[in-house]
C-alpha cells in the first residue's frame, strides 16, 4: 500500500513568506501616508470649524475676544488660539509621541484673513499639498 504525503514543503512555505514580506514592505509606507493624510484632513477641518465659530462670534460682538468653547484639538494635534479684539491666529501643533509627530506637513496655522500656512514643514511642500485645496 502506498502512502501519499499531503501538505506543503518547507521551500513552498518559505516562498510564500518571502512574497508576503515583499508585499508588506511595499504597502506599509503607502498605508501609513494614507492614514496621515486623513489625520491632516481632520485637523484642517477642526481649524476651519473654529474659524467659523470665531467669525460668528465676531459678527455678534464685533470682537473676537471673549469666545468660549473652542476645541483644543484631537489625539494628534493641539490647537492653540491666539485671539485679539480684531484678529486671531489658530495654530495646530503636532503632539509629540504620536504618529503625526514627524509628519512632513508640520504644524498648521490659520488667520482671521484666511491665510493658511505650515510651520516646520518639509522643504518644497505647498499649502495645497497639506491643506488639500
From TrEMBL:
Pfam family, one: N_methyl
UniProt cross-references to Gene3D superfamilies, sorted A to Z: Glycoprotein, Type 4 Pilin
Keywords of this entry: Membrane, Transmembrane, Transmembrane helix
InterPro entries xrefs: N_methyl_site, PilE-like, Pilin-like
Cited SUPFAM superfamilies: Pili subunits
Domain of life per record: Bacteria
Any one GO BP annotation for this protein: type IV pilus assembly
TM spans (from-to): 7-31
Protein name, UniProt field: Prepilin-type N-terminal cleavage/methylation domain-containing protein
Organism: Pseudomonas jessenii
Amino acid at each position: 500500500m502506498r502512502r501519499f504525503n499531503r501538505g506543503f514543503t518547507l521551500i513552498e512555505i518559505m516562498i510564500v513568506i518571502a512574497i508576503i514580506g515583499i508585499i508588506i514592505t511595499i504597502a506599509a509606507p503607502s498605508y501609513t501616508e494614507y492614514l496621515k493624510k486623513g489625520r491632516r484632513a481632520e485637523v484642517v477641518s477642526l481649524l476651519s470649524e473654529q474659524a467659523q465659530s470665531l467669525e460668528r462670534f465676531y459678527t455678534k460682538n464685533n470682537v473676537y475676544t471673549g469666545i468660549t468653547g473652542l476645541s483644543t484639538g484631537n489625539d494628534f494635534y493641539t490647537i492653540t488660539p491666539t485671539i485679539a479684539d480684531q484678529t486671531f491666529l489658530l495654530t495646530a501643533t503636532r503632539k509629540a509621541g504620536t504618529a503625526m509627530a514627524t509628519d512632513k506637513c508640520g504644524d498648521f496655522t490659520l488667520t482671521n484673513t484666511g491665510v493658511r500656512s505650515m510651520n516646520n514643514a518639509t522643504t518644497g511642500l505647498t499649502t495645497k499639498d497639506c491643506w488639500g485645496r
